[in-house]
Amino acid sequence: IGNGPESVIFMLIFMAITYFIAALGVNNGLEKANFVMMPALIIIAAVIAVYALTMPGAMDGLAFYLVPDFSKFSPELVIAALGQTFFTLSLAMCIMVTYGSYLDKSTKLTSSVAQIAGSTFGVSLLAGLMIIPATFVTMGSGEAVAQNSGPSLMFVVLPQVFEGMGDIAGIVGTGFFVLVLFAALTSSIALTESAVSTLQDELGWGRKKATAVIGAVMLGLGSLSSLGYGPLAGVKIIGMQLLDFFDFLTNSVMMPIAAI
After folding, report:
1. Diameter of the chain by CA atoms?
2. Which of residues 43 and 34 earns the better pLDDT score?
């Protein structure tokens, strides 16, 4: 992650996959891609979660994850939770509106909402079971885990966790980041579809033209994020590196404001 050129190269590969699928359209691109990636994502997460819970001391991490500590309650915590909720449910990003526009008019909204909220809660719980106990074992305390929350937890701390797993480190680490890749792809495709369909509807553009314009804009913003832990690591905004700042700005600030 610290090598700038490599980060940008992998970002370009990721963008190429995203925009290729988006350019194919909903049925030929989005539907077929999600049909494969989403089940694979859940299976990989379940396998890693089961392994994480077998690590010595993992039960302490499980208690830290599941047992509430009301002394930690604060307005900042509410804001962070609100941002996370908006992000996981894809609210205020037009994703639900865009996907909903492709549904049959007879589809029941209430049943769809229940399915979305239920599956989101289940996957979020599974993600916590996968990450928190293993990280707790490595770092030794809940406070240490909390201090390293955010993108740095995934890209800096967790690789250190995998290194301590001995012979299976490569398998577990590879499985986890394949999982992250699938999760990122499904999110990236969904966000791209929202932007592309908006340009199509509002400006009358074709799908390929709209996809190319959105791709060009994201190339600039993505390059900054990719270099945030490398050559631009010294550039910080309100004490945050570029990727962390973009994550905070979009998830915890912009989405709740947009929804309200």
Report:
1. 58
2. 43
